[in-house]
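A favour, since you know our structure tokens better than I do. Go ahead and set the record down below.
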Amino acid sequence: MDWVQLRERELDTNALIALGDAVTQAARHAAGGRAVRIVVNRRCDVALAIGADGVHLGFDAIDPETARRLLGSEAWVGVSSHSAADVRAAEKQGASYVHLAPIFPPHSKAPSRPALGLEGLADATVGTIPVLAQGGIDASNAGEVVAAGAAGVAVTGSILQAVDPRAATAAIRNALDRGRF
């Protein structure tokens, strides 16, 4: 299943809701009948307003239990993590999934910590919580990331910085599909 995370920190609430409505509609239309999950970065209020599937929480956000109380038991509540220990803690806190980063040096920003690599990813995926790998992922390594145990990938730079974002997205999707089989 493809996911879209709405992450826009500069907009006021009304503008973010309008953007969220447009992104949700476009993503579900572009999926061509495939299911697509929509999560909103940090904003439970916006997730509720646009009918998103859940929320992604950063390190300075509310805890997963509180987010689930606000959004309902079926909501997808994700958290950011940077180590296998963070992944295990998120699982204990009731998160639905985690983003683990950076696997490789990021494309979209200067690295702020050492890359975990495929070995660090594999160590973090021994539990039952789905781990989405993030950081430096593109079509050339997405299959390897899934083969190392990731449930999926979170991608920013390799799509947003691409000359053709649609083609970059399709290439990553193809690499992921090949990596699973």
About this structure: The mean pLDDT is 91. Helices lie at 13-30, 44-50, 64-71, 84-92, 117-124, 142-147, 157-160, 165-180. The two ends are 15 Å apart (CA to CA). The first strand starts at residue 2 and ends at 6.
